[in-house]
């Protein structure tokens, strides 16, 4: 499916922010914005939904806590309740202070690592991934806004983008959507 | 400018009067002879199930427990002597109870003011950009430092010179038979206690006086001279504070158990103090904001305070657990008695405060959105403050009243009394200066603060 997008390049993040606001006000659809660094508030003006990654992290933490508790309970209390230095291994709660460091660390371990892996999966990042960079300058000092040309009048849209402060405007024919 | 609403004045005076009456009643109902103790116990052996008075019921059941244990050793002495010794012991505990209640409440509100002062100094030393709009609120809360400090000093003098029996080490008879306390007498003596208290309180009040004075002068200045001065004295104060706070915790809290010692005790007291102080700043800010006095305080400022409440709650728990777990794990008899008496006699408050001071704030304040909901912060704040009152309660009570504890007339009376005084002093101090500092290098940033 071939689709057309317009790539508008900016050199200043403030101008970019203004442009995003204007483009959204005109109800053009922004496909993607490429920036060399995080621009504060860009997600808000683009109208992106807030991330839920903190919630996943909380749940992964609970999983870690459960794993630690079940593991220590099985090993130290149920499977082989030895007397080690007089520590009471009759029930989990009696010996719990000794397990708290493990419970804490596994909670953090699960919460952190699984959240990072979730982030990689949701952002489709992995070691041999082919970079999806439309213009190498966007990793250095240029900002690129990709606007869906769709059924819009390309001339009018280009003129409009030029007025928002874009330095370069190019029409790109995509072979596939990604 | 803030004007003290007459309703608030009346409200705080009512609290002081009611609290004072309840505390007085606590002092008057404390037994003065062993015969009275015996009578109180006998009364409740008969109709203990009628639940006439909860506090006496607890005392009765505790008496039964200890009566059983001492019954086993009875063959060594005459039954009468040990019975008398036991009554004597209970009498001292009951006599200590209103004094301890007074001391705990006095210290609790004093430490809020002290913690706020430390937080204030940190804001200056760190050149924080978010907090200058809250400086006047903090200054007003630290105003309680002076009356609260004087009350603490008087209480310490009464205990340090054995007018009451709160500090065992102050009792010459006890010291005469106690090698361990004799060894510590170079530090633990009434004169030393008062000299140190005077130095601590003097230093803290000195910093408070000058910091507030400079802050007022800064309003009318045309350069940053006063800000720089506050920056310098704040840095110096923080060095002074961390040493004196640590020693204060040995003197004023840890010496209730003069046989016991813990190296991180000072930090532990500090952490509790900071949570309470930040919570109080948040609560007072929300109250004033609700009345329309703090137009530049927005949800982001509350969010920051709530983050501090959350973080310091975890820090407190970390220190609580580090102290508990190290002692529990090594289980050295001379250290572990501290926790054994607390777990056996104070099980509910001892573990209940963990739920109030850790689980509750962690679960409620973890969500970023909830930290911006004012009533949520207020709710959590009240639980945190109650939890830390119990924390101080569990630090002091086991050593002074032991098993004869209860949260009844004198305890609640003392809380009401000092709460009324605290509210009165803090909100009166609030009327002394405009609620927004006029010129501070960070005031613009603070007004536009957004997170």
From TrEMBL, chain A:
<dbReference type="InterPro" id="IPR021776">
    <property type="entry name" value="ActD"/>
</dbReference>
<protein>
    <recommendedName>
        <fullName>Quinol:cytochrome C oxidoreductase</fullName>
    </recommendedName>
</protein>
<keyword id="KW-1133">Transmembrane helix</keyword>
<feature type="transmembrane region" description="Helical">
    <location>
        <begin position="53"/>
        <end position="76"/>
    </location>
</feature>
<dbReference type="Pfam" id="PF11821">
    <property type="entry name" value="ActD"/>
</dbReference>
<feature type="transmembrane region" description="Helical">
    <location>
        <begin position="96"/>
        <end position="120"/>
    </location>
</feature>
<keyword id="KW-0812">Transmembrane</keyword>
<keyword id="KW-0472">Membrane</keyword>
UniProtKB/TrEMBL annotation, chain B:
<keyword id="KW-1133">Transmembrane helix</keyword>
<feature type="transmembrane region" description="Helical">
    <location>
        <begin position="12"/>
        <end position="30"/>
    </location>
</feature>
<feature type="transmembrane region" description="Helical">
    <location>
        <begin position="265"/>
        <end position="288"/>
    </location>
</feature>
<protein>
    <submittedName>
        <fullName>Quinol:cytochrome C oxidoreductase</fullName>
    </submittedName>
</protein>
<feature type="transmembrane region" description="Helical">
    <location>
        <begin position="101"/>
        <end position="122"/>
    </location>
</feature>
<feature type="transmembrane region" description="Helical">
    <location>
        <begin position="233"/>
        <end position="253"/>
    </location>
</feature>
<feature type="transmembrane region" description="Helical">
    <location>
        <begin position="373"/>
        <end position="399"/>
    </location>
</feature>
<feature type="transmembrane region" description="Helical">
    <location>
        <begin position="143"/>
        <end position="167"/>
    </location>
</feature>
<feature type="compositionally biased region" description="Basic and acidic residues">
    <location>
        <begin position="46"/>
        <end position="62"/>
    </location>
</feature>
<feature type="transmembrane region" description="Helical">
    <location>
        <begin position="405"/>
        <end position="429"/>
    </location>
</feature>
<feature type="region of interest" description="Disordered">
    <location>
        <begin position="46"/>
        <end position="80"/>
    </location>
</feature>
<keyword id="KW-0472">Membrane</keyword>
<feature type="transmembrane region" description="Helical">
    <location>
        <begin position="187"/>
        <end position="207"/>
    </location>
</feature>
<feature type="transmembrane region" description="Helical">
    <location>
        <begin position="348"/>
        <end position="366"/>
    </location>
</feature>
<dbReference type="InterPro" id="IPR036259">
    <property type="entry name" value="MFS_trans_sf"/>
</dbReference>
<feature type="transmembrane region" description="Helical">
    <location>
        <begin position="308"/>
        <end position="328"/>
    </location>
</feature>
<keyword id="KW-0812">Transmembrane</keyword>
């Amino acid at each position: 499916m071939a689709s057309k997008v317009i790539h508008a390049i900016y050199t200043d993040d403030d101008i970019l922010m203004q442009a995003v606001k204007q483009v959204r006000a005109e109800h053009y659809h922004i496909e993607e914005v490429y920036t060399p660094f995080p621009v504060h508030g860009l997600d808000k003006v683009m109208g992106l939904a807030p991330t839920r990654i903190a919630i996943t992290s909380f749940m992964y933490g609970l999983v870690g806590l459960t794993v630690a508790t079940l593991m220590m309970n099985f090993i130290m209390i149920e499977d082989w309740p030895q007397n080690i230095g007089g520590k009471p291994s009759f029930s989990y709660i009696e010996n719990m202070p000794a397990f708290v460091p493990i419970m804490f660390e596994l909670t953090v371990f699960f919460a952190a690592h699984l959240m990072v892996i979730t982030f990689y999966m949701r952002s489709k990042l992995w070691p041999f991934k082919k970079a999806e960079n439309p213009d190498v300058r966007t990793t250095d000092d240029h900002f690129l806004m990709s606007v869906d040309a769709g059924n819009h009048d390309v001339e009018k849209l280009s003129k409009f983008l030029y007025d928002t402060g874009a330095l370069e405007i190019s029409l790109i024919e995509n072979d596939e959507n990604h | 400018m803030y004007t003290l609403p007459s309703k608030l004045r009346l409200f705080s005076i009512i609290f002081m009067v009611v609290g004072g009456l309840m505390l007085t009643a606590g002092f008057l109902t404390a037994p003065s002879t062993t015969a009275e103790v015996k009578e109180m116990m006998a009364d409740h052996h008969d109709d203990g199930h009628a639940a006439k008075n909860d506090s006496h019921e607890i005392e009765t059941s505790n008496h039964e427990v200890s009566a059983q244990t001492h019954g086993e050793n009875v063959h060594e002495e005459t039954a009468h002597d040990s019975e008398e010794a036991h009554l004597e012991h209970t009498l001292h505990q009951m006599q200590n109870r209103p004094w301890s209640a007074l001391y705990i409440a006095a210290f609790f509100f004093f430490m809020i003011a002290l913690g706020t002062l430390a937080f204030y100094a940190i804001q200056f030393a760190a050149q924080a950009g978010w907090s200058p709009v809250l400086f006047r609120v903090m200054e007003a809360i630290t105003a309680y430092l002076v009356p609260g400090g004087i009350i603490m000093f008087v209480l310490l003098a009464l205990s340090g010179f054995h007018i009451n029996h709160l500090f065992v080490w102050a009792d010459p008879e006890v010291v005469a038979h106690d090698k361990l306390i004799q060894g510590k007498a170079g530090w633990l003596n009434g004169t030393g206690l008062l000299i140190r208290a005077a130095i601590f309180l003097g230093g803290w009040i000195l910093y408070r006086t000058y910091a507030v004075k400079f802050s007022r002068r800064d309003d009318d200045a045309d350069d940053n001279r006063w800000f720089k001065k506050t920056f310098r004295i704040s840095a110096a104060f923080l060095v002074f504070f961390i040493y004196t706070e640590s020693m204060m915790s040995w003197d004023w809290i840890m010496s209730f158990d003069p046989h016991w010692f813990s190296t991180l005790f000072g930090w532990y007291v500090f952490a509790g103090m900071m949570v309470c102080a930040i919570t109080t700043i948040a609560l007072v800010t929300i109250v004033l904001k609700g009345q329309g006095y703090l137009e530049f305080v927005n949800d982001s400022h509350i969010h920051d305070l709530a983050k501090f409440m959350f973080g310091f709650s975890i820090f407190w728990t970390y220190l609580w657990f580090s102290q508990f777990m190290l002692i529990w794990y090594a289980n050295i008899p001379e250290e572990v008695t501290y926790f054994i008496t607390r777990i056996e006699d104070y099980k509910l408050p001892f573990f209940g405060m963990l739920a109030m001071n850790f689980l509750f704030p962690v679960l409620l304040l973890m969500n970023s959105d909830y930290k911006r909901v004012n009533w949520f912060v207020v709710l959590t704040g009240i639980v945190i403050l109650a939890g830390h009152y119990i924390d101080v309660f569990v630090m002091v009570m086991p050593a002074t009243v032991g098993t004869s504890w209860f949260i009844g007339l004198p305890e609640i009376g003392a809380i009401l009394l000092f709460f009324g005084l605290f509210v009165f002093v803090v909100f009166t101090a609030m009327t002394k200066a405009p609620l927004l500092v006029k010129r501070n290098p960070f005031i613009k940033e603070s007004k536009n603060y957004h997170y």
